[in-house]
Inverse folding.
């Protein structure tokens, strides 16, 4: 098993787009990668594991980060883990409560 820590967001909006760039279909546009090497490392793990755990904070920012990671692993089995703390008890509870990642219902 590998653990890849993103240490936050993977993408940022272009500096000329305030507050956010969206098209007529309400899809985000012009997002720029923050760390190309990290993004490639995540992509390189595709098809190496049976399941991928998207473990982030249980808030909207965590949902965005999980969604960005999921977009780099198309077709993979993804489980959403919402971490409320980093102590053993919190991690065990989050892992027991893990659910199949569904982008349309995560936000």
């Amino acid at each position: 098993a590998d653990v890849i820590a993103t240490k936050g967001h993977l993408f940022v909006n272009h500096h000329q787009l305030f507050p956010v760039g969206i098209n007529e279909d309400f899809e985000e546009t012009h997002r720029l990668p923050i760390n190309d090497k990290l993004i490639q490392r995540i992509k390189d793990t595709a098809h190496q594991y049976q399941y991928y755990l998207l473990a982030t904070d249980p808030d909207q920012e965590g949902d965005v980060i999980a969604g960005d990671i999921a977009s780099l692993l198309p077709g993979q089995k993804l489980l959403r883990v919402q971490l409320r703390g980093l102590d053993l008890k919190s991690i065990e509870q989050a892992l027991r409560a893990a659910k199949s990642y569904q982008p349309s219902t995560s936000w």
